[in-house]
User: What shape does this take?
Amino acid sequence: MKITYDPEADVLYIQLTSKMPVESVNIEPGVFYEIDDEDHLVSIEILDASERYKDFNQVEFIHYPLPIKKRPKKQSKKKEAASA
Assistant: This one.
């Protein structure tokens, strides 16, 4: 994920993935989200960012641990052959 701010244009851009967006959707005036060809969220663009969010230069990151799904262990081909 990349977060960039262009002070000259006053645009805050949050890129969530490296996929290329194919469509931009206007959520409200000056706020857009972009989706890829599979309708997944790719990025968020906010115009006039310093006017909308006075303290946006103070970014707080909160980390929430994600649940990890345990995958079943794959048996080796030797074990599969022996059990057959």
Observations:
- The two ends are 47 Å apart (CA to CA).
